[in-house]
Amino acid sequence: KAGVTQTPRYLIKTRGQQVTLSCSPISGHRSVSWYQQTPGQGLQFLFEYFSETQRNKGNFPGRFSGRQFSNSRSEMNVSTLELGDSALYLCASGSGGPTYEQYFGPGTRLTVT
Amino acid sequence: KNEVEQSPQNLTAQEGEFITINCSYSVGISALHWLQQHPGGGIVSLFMLSSGKKKHGRLIATINIQEKHSSLHITASHPRDSAVYICAVGSQGNLIFGKGTKLSVKP
Hints:
Chain A has about 110 residues and is mostly beta strands. Chain A has no helices and 11 strands. In chain A, about 0% of the residues lie in helices and about 55% in strands.
């Protein structure tokens, strides 16, 4: 089986712009979770989608949003980018949610200048 | 105080040594994960456990639900084990992460 894929792998954006990141889960997985990793805060849970519905959400502002399509692929959007949004964004797929076994993608490294 | 605490933060070992990384948490959990992250960012799930003990090759993970504590052991450590090891707990649909333990194994 192919693993979790994320595109793009690297991205440079300017403050105030918006960005969309994509995640394709392992075939058959219906849950996709998104995480942000920064040197200061470490790994933090953003949200989880299951069968096209947001099931759980972490403590992030409304600028961070996501969606999941009928084929389980998921996108994450960040609007009005701030310098502090520079981070590694990871998605993970699984048969359940974050409390089940997770398979991580390679991540998208976002730099905001 | 963080909800998930790991110790030590950094660990240097000689090849062949037995290594223990500890994780304590303060919330009710449904499961605990041990993750491995190599330079470059890729994360691999090593274990998910909710009770007892699991073993995979040279890696052993234990959890004590009453004491809210888990340990990850590496037997006969090898330089390829050098990575950041992260403990994460599943609580109320979220994953809460520890800050990680950076392990360096010298040949």
